[in-house]
Amino acid sequence: QRWASSLPMNTLVLFVPQQEAWVVERMGRFHRILEPGLNFLIPLLDRIRYVQSLKEIVIDVPEQSAVSLDNVTLQIDGVLYLRILDPFKASYGVEDPEYAVTQLAQTTMRSELGKLTLDKVFRERESLNSNIVHSINQASDDWGIRCLRYEIKDIHVPPRVKESMQMQVEAERKKRATVLESEGTREAAINVAEGRKQAQILASEGEKAERINNANGEAQAVLLKAEAKSKAIRVLSEALSEQNGNAAASLTVAEQYVSAFSNLAKESNTILLPTNAGDMSSMVTQAMAIYSTLGKTSQKARTSQMNSKRRYNAEEAVCFSYRGSKASLCEQS
Question: Among 106, 137, 157, which residue terminates a domain?
Answer without folding.
Answer: 157
